[in-house]
Amino acid sequence: MRLAVMANSPGDYERLGLSPTSIEPWEDGARTDDSPGTYEWWYFDAHLADGATLVIAFMNKDIAEPQKPLSPLLRLELDLPDGRHFEKPIDFPAAAWSAARDHADVRLGSNRFTGDLHTYRIEATAEEISVDVTLTGEVPAWRPGSGYMLFGADRSLEFAWLPSVPQGAVTVRYTVDGEQHETTGVGYHDHNWGNVGLMKIVHDWYWARGQAGPYSVIASYITSAQRYGFEPIPIFMLAHDNVVIGDDPTKVTFEREGIYNDETTGKPVATTTRYVYQDGEDRYVVSFTRTRDLTLSRMIDNVKGVKHIAARLAHFDGAYLRFAGDLEVSHHRGSQLLETHQDEAIWELMYFGHARTE
User: Fold this and answer.
1) Under a CB-based contact definition with an 8 Å cutoff, are residues 37 and 66 in contact?
2) Is the CATH number of domain 1-196 2.40.370.10?
3) 96 phi and psi angles, rounded to 5 deg
4) Which of 69, 189, 257, 334 is most deeply buried (CB count within 10 A of its CB)?
5) Rounded Cα distance, 287 and 292, in Å
6) Is the pLDDT reported for residue 164 higher than 90?
7) CATH superfamily, region 199-358
8) What is the pLDDT of residue 296?
């Protein structure tokens, strides 16, 4: 029996109250009750025309500590074209948090993340940085199957994922120390939640999204924790001219090339990750090739005091790495190469477990 699976049977859809063919706005509303053991976050990122990149997450708690009661935080990351990097995790009291259940409307003090699966408004301030974003969906909301990954023999442990805007147009106004910028860009929004700590069910994952020519892609390769057999869960969506043309995980193979050991985190990292989607005679090859590091973070460095000591004693060595580089999408039919498109992209490697030795 596989101990880590996507929930995509007719019974799964019925149990979860979901349609296999359509997505409703309530699915981007609150899906947990914020209780200990659960977690939830709404995420946004964008590549901006002025060369900046922006990441915003509204989280009901730190994913490393899902056992905590409601303890919300705002995460804001901004990389400017002049090389400045800002990383702002801001904690809030529980009373500052609210999240509607019928659609995305998350409040964190004066910060707000709201939308309806098509148009979103995000307003956030973190110390000397403030942003005001409008995201308009181009590729329609999508999920891999039901969006739920199930773990354990009884499949009671859940991690869920909804890419509410796989790709959209962005207009943004951001301010850094009173210096104002207005620009446009390409953005993405997804929503995640679960009832078990990710460190207990996931060993590592690569996750990426991007656009090249007429193609948009979301690609992830999740490896479950050792207790679940290191079972792989591939996730893949390819759209052409904003229409999904491929999302069957059984047609995807995943490859890593140029593996090296990152000195900061001690984790093995692939210089290139490649997703090959074979659909009859058509083969789509999607490659992400690293050119620079954006974030190299040992999770233990963000844990303070007694918890830091406990984490060291438990030999916890989780890591988060974010890269920038080149995305290439090529379409083959039989032995013929029909087209190739390239652009820049950002992707991540989340590593909860120890590096595997086999």
Assistant:
1) yes
2) yes
3) -80, -10
4) 189
5) 15
6) yes
7) AttH-like domain (2.40.370.10)
8) 85
